[in-house]
Amino acid sequence: MPLAKSSKRTRKPTTKAADPTANTVTTSDSEQPQTGKQAPKACRIHWNVARTERLLDWLEENPEDRQKLFSDSSKDAKEEGRRKHVAKSTKSEFHKMIAVAVFSVDDDTNIHVDFCSNPVNYTKSVDNYIMRLVFFCLYTYSMCLHSLYRLRKEYRSFNEKLGQTGAGLRYEDIEEGSNLQNLVGE
Questions:
Q1: CA nearest 91: which of 72, 69, 73?
Q2: Which of 90, 69, 75 is nearest to 134 (CA)?
Q3: Phi, psi at residue 82, to the nearest 5°?
Q4: What is the DSSP track for 30-59?
Q5: What are the domain boundaries of the chain?
Q6: Rounded to an integer, what is the distance from CA 139 to the centroid of its chain?
Q7: What is the pTM assigned to this prediction?
Q8: Which of 79, 90, 92, 162 could form an S-S bond across to 166 if both were Cys, CB 3.0 to 4.6 Å?
Q9: pLDDT tens string 22-42
Q10: Residues 102, 58: contact at Cβ < 8 Å?
């Protein structure tokens, strides 16, 4: 008869509270201490203007990679008389190249050290930042379109109420107290 697997999950190591200077870690499943250095904490990545500019510079300087990253359009390629650029690698490869371009020349030396030891964090940061920028641009664009549609609808509705009587009149030519002035005053 096969043995059933234990449903107990392994727990994360906890630090002993008795001696704060000790570099000893124990696990709840086994009471034998393990010694070792703790890994340095990764830096929090903040996107400032200089880093954003380097990202945008990379996108401008690498148009083929940019088209691959943002899915080149067949329609655009046809209109420009060229072949469509298709990525042969994953987007994370492009994010890695951008991370190298942005963070390898950073003014902060701590960023250089952390980038060398944690390149995946910076690659993921590039991915997240690009997605936020794309979402922001799409959101702003959709809000502008929504406003334009709303204004067009209101304009057409107002012109329907106004009718032919207001055609060609300037605001100064409208008589006070008339129905036309009441419509314009709303």
A1: 69
A2: 69
A3: -140, 170
A4: ----EE-PPPPPPPPP---HHHHHHHHHHH
A5: 49-130
A6: 12
A7: 0.51
A8: 162
A9: 333 333 344 444 445 555 566
A10: yes
